[in-house]
Amino acid sequence: MFDLRAYLKAKQQRVNDALRRLWDNTEPHPTLLVQAMRYSLEAEGKRLRPILCIAASEAVGGSDTDVMPGACALEFIHTYSLIHDDLPALDDDDLRRGKPTCHKAFDEATAVLTGDALLTAAFEVLSAAGRHQGDDALKWLEVIYLIAKAAGHFGMIEGQMMDLASEGKRITLKELEAIHRLKTGALIEVSVRTGAMLGGGSHEQIDALAAYGRHIGLAFQVTDDILDIEGNIEDLGKSPGSDQVHQKATYPSLMGLDQSRAHARELIEKASEELRNFDTKAEPLIALSRYIIERKR
Ligand code: GRG
């Protein structure tokens, strides 16, 4: 039987090694900025986006080496979004990944710039990898375009703006879904798509995996909403209850906890259905989809 724990541990290790190797050559005197980048990057994140990227590559017969710069770029973007989201102007959180948030450990200006530097590093690492790809350079260019789109005003940032605008307001389930598809779903979907593309998948495989990514992206956010109610500070590494503080509409607030759990399960079933034409190399993706809704952090 497929051992997800062992898989996650091995891939987290591979990603953590690469995260430092790909951009950080400032030893033995890291600047304050580099110290802050390391502080946030090296905290205990699940590395879900890079691992989804790797697992998608493996599902189409690629390897983790094929996609590592893409996988790391996704983690840079995700980590920057967490740093900025925690700032006083946004969620104003004190704890992240089990440690004081970047602006608490350093200061607000450093946290803004650390996020900026990580976002920029993502595209530095991606384009540096693409430059050395010969005939495959165009594929990398396409990946850079898709990741930029998913992270910016067609994706995560627009979702964040919509989320802010909805605070304290009554919104419909359809509106909530639209917010989450952009705010959280877009980066998760592009993580899977990037892995499938860089791993050498066919058009059909890439489309099927992107659809899988869309379903699990939404399931991730439904679960995040549930954990914000049911989770505890030790497991989450951050304080629960933030949605209520910010008067945010969530899946549990609109459909109740039981229905939200059922909805997450439905989404995971739809995601698994997209993998019907894949062989056993897609086992990690199936296990990851279950993990996304069963996780405690
Ligand atoms: C750029 C300010 C800004 C915001 C973008 C994605 C996002 C919008 C903000 C992140 C804040 C947040 C808590 C969003 C909810 C879902 C989410 C992305 C949770 C954290 O992701 P995990 O659970 O975290 O994968 P780890 O720490 O394991 O990497």
Report on this model:
With 297 residues, the protein is mainly α. It has a single domain, classed as Farnesyl Diphosphate Synthase (Orthogonal Bundle). Helix content is 71%, strand content 1%. It has 15 helices and two strands. A two-stranded antiparallel sheet has the order 1-2. Helix 3 crosses helix 9. It is globular, with a radius of gyration of 18 Å. It binds geranylgeranyl diphosphate.
Quick overview of this protein structure:
This protein is mainly alpha-helical and 297 residues long. The chain has 15 helices and 2 strands. Strands 1-2 form a two-stranded antiparallel ribbon.
Descriptive labels:
mainly alpha; Farnesyl Diphosphate Synthase; two-stranded antiparallel ribbon; binds geranylgeranyl diphosphate
CATH superfamily: Farnesyl Diphosphate Synthase
Bound small-molecule species? geranylgeranyl diphosphate
| Oligomerization state | single chain
Overall outline: globular
Q: What kind of sheet is the major sheet?
A: 2 strands, antiparallel
CATH topology: Farnesyl Diphosphate Synthase
Mean pLDDT: 94
- Which parts are unreliable, with pLDDT below 50 for 5 consecutive residues or more? none
Percent of residues in beta strands: under 5%
The SS-based structural class is mainly alpha
What is the CA-based Rg, rounded? Answer: 18 Å
Number of helices: 15
Walk across the major sheet and give the strand order.
1-2
Count of domains: 1
Q: What is the level-2 CATH architecture name?
A: Orthogonal Bundle
Total strand segments? 2
